[in-house]
From TrEMBL:
Superkingdom as given in the UniProt entry: Bacteria
Stated name of the protein: Adenylate cyclase
Species, as recorded: Catenovulum maritimum
């Protein structure tokens, strides 16, 4: 089980935790910029991965940002890439991306830890899982609103926009196969690891009891995946991939995306198999390589279900919450949202999932309210 700490290994002492998040993401989402918020969070991962390749690091997408673990030796390489993501967010979408770094050594000095495990749900897809509450502590330090916060990445000369190679955002929102798609956040607050593991297992059992098997509540289905022809939708990818190249290059890229859409539809419909890619299997691999459930000191899930199932889920979670065992947040939407990192179209592609209209970022508001009430 993902919360079983015996499966985790400590991150080395000389590593750093990188946290990115869109400042005032709630207000941006209320203005309809939830797709841009998601895209910026994924773009920060893509930039970091590109900067330090072929080195592989553990990371997790959180909706309005991301978290990753980075060796100290890679800081000077990573900082220009992260600065590029911050500049891109401001120039292309008018949004501010906060970027912070905290050493693992300092996290441990405060009594927290950063533990990581590798989860492989499918043959070509690996996920990092985190425990130890160190990520939550790092995020708290980075989000302290002080003018001289020492954890915030200072001004840095940014890398060029090739740093975003592999970022893709070409799919239409995926309408729920049921009545709704929810983003679910659950954070255990029990005192010891054994109790937390039992609580999370009981919660997952409840999810299965209410929603059925994973295949039943998976928010994506093969027949409701479609490539977008909307310039508004495609503008997120175009803005990021041509961030510093000017309007002409951006328009050219948008036209290129329209051509690629038609080619992609034909390749997948005809199940064309090339030397490098079996296009008949691509949509299934997309489903397999999707992070619709994960753990980073907080259980994160995107679930398709009915409104009555959500009522039953809330009733079950309220029992745990009233016993001061968890805090949780739920955001309901009519669709899911995919943002992608593609290294190749055969097997090496990852698809970051959120509920539309704010997803995890909006669910976090309810989670934070419960945590504040608990502190009171």
């Amino acid at each position: 089980m993902f919360a079983q700490t015996s499966w985790y290994k400590p991150i080395p002492e000389d590593w750093f935790i990188v946290v990115t998040d869109v400042i005032n993401s709630t207000e941006a989402i209320k203005k309809g910029q939830y797709k841009q918020v998601n895209s910026i969070g994924v773009a920060s991962i893509v930039a970091l991965i590109n900067a330090i390749k072929p080195l592989k690091i553990p990371y997790v997408f959180g909706g309005d940002g991301a978290t990753a673990c980075l060796p100290k030796s890679q800081l000077d390489i990573a900082k220009p890439a992260l600065a590029a993501a911050r500049l891109m967010a401001q120039e292309q979408f008018g949004l501010n991306l906060r970027i912070g770094l905290v050493s693992v050594a300092e996290i441990r000095e405060h009594g927290f830890d950063v533990l990581v495990a590798k989860h492989q749900p499918h043959e070509f897809y690996q996920q990092a899982m985190f425990a130890g509450n160190g990520l939550n502590f790092a995020e708290k330090l980075i989000k302290e609103d002080t003018p001289t916060n020492p954890y915030i990445l200072a001004d840095y000369f940014p890398a060029n926009d090739d740093i975003f190679d592999g970022f893709e955002c070409r799919w239409n929102e995926i309408p729920s196969t049921k009545e709704e798609t929810i983003a679910l956040l659950i954070q255990g607050v029990a005192a010891d690891d054994h109790s937390l593991n039992q609580i999370y297992q009981q919660i997952l059992d409840k999810v299965s009891e209410i929603y059925g098997t994973e295949s039943e509540y998976h928010p994506l289905k093969l027949d409701n995946l479609s490539l977008s022809s909307s310039f508004k939708t495609l503008n997120c990818e175009a803005g990021i991939r041509t961030a510093f190249k000017g309007l002409a290059k951006r328009l050219k890229y948008l036209l290129k995306l329209q051509v690629l859409r038609l080619v992609g539809i034909w390749l997948m419909a005809k199940k064309i198999k090339t030397q490098h890619t079996d296009w008949g299997k691509y949509k299934q691999q997309l489903l397999d390589n999707t992070d619709y459930q994960k753990f980073d000191d907080t259980l994160r899930m995107v679930i398709a279900g009915s409104k009555s199932q959500q009522v039953k889920l809330r009733q079950a979670l309220d029992v745990f919450q009233q016993q001061d065992l968890i805090a949780y947040g739920i955001h309901s939407s009519s669709a899911a949202l995919i943002t992608c990192m593609v290294k190749d179209y055969n097997t090496d592609h990852v698809h970051f999932l959120d509920a539309a209209n704010g997803g995890y970022a909006m669910a976090a508001l309810e989670l934070k309210r419960q945590l504040k009430n608990r502190e009171k």
